[in-house]
């Protein structure tokens, strides 16, 4: 880890202060593990449990697409990205079914980048089939790091050539 060089006047190179602000013109603000930005000097809402922003992360993940029953003969392109701020994750994926095979009921996506803090069947995401039907998707949590989805008209979305864009927002 490189540190900012001390200036002759005792300050750090690239760091200025004034009017109650700190400005970093060269480099990043790096916080040790377990530390964060403390917002405790603000008015609290009833039920507040933390005022410390202590995690931010962006990355990629590999979705694993399967049907509830049967099998998909050929899964096409799959890709996933995520952003995590504190304990909230927004995970997005793009999925393609080349050949459905005997898949039926609804589809499942496993391998989300973080596990859910609580399992429930409430709708937690949104999506759409983007090439053939344009139909919206109902998305709900399953166990650990898996979501399920089907068309909002409660039909199975897995047809040959269907391509999905899916986003799930959840608490870790």
Summarize this structure as a short list of keywords or feature phrases.
48% strand, 13 strands, 172 residues, two-stranded antiparallel ribbon, nine-stranded antiparallel beta sheet, mainly beta
Task: Summarize the structure in words.
- The chain has a domain at 57-171.
- The protein is elongated, with a radius of gyration of 22 Å.
- It has a 9-stranded antiparallel beta sheet, with no helix packed on it. Strands 1-2 form a two-stranded antiparallel sheet.
- The chain is built from no helices and 13 strands.
- It has strands at residues 15-18, 21-24, 37-38, 52-53, 56-61, 64-69, 74-85, 88-99, 104-110, 123-129, 136-141, 146-151, 163-171.
- By secondary structure, it is mainly β.
Outline of this structure?
This protein has 172 residues and is mainly β.
Q: Which of globular, elongated, flat, extended, rod-shaped describes the shape?
A: elongated
Q: Tally the helices: what do you get?
A: 0
What percent of the residues sit in helical stretches (DSSP H or I)?
Answer: under 10%
**In which order are the strands of the major sheet placed?**
5-7-8-13-10-11-12-9-6
Q: pLDDT under 50 segments (min length 5)?
A: none
The structure class reads mainly beta
How many strands? 13
What kind of oligomer do you see?
A: single chain
What's the order of the H and E elements?
A: EEEEEEEEEEEEE
Q: What is the alpha-carbon Rg in Å?
A: 22 Å
Mean pLDDT: 87
Share of β-strand residues: over 45%
Distance between the termini: 29 Å
What kind of sheet is the major sheet? 9 strands, antiparallel
């Amino acid at each position: 880890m490189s540190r900012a060089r001390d200036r002759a006047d005792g300050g750090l190179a690239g760091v200025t202060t004034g009017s109650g602000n700190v400005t970093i013109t060269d480099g990043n603000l790096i916080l040790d593990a377990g530390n964060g930005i403390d917002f405790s000097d603000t008015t609290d809402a009833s039920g507040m449990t933390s005022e410390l922003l202590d995690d931010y992360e962006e990355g990629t993940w590999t979705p694993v697409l399967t049907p509830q029953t049967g099998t998909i003969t050929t899964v096409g392109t799959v890709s996933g990205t995520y952003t995590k701020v504190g304990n909230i994750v927004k995970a997005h994926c793009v999925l393609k079914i080349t050949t459905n095979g005997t898949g039926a009921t609804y589809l499942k996506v496993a391998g989300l980048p973080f596990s859910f803090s609580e399992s429930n069947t409430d709708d937690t995401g949104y999506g759409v089939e983007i090439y053939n039907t344009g139909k919206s998707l109902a998305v709900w949590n399953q166990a650990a790091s898996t979501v399920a989805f089907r068309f909002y008209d409660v039909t199975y979305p897995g047809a040959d050539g269907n391509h999905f864009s899916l986003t799930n927002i959840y608490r870790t």
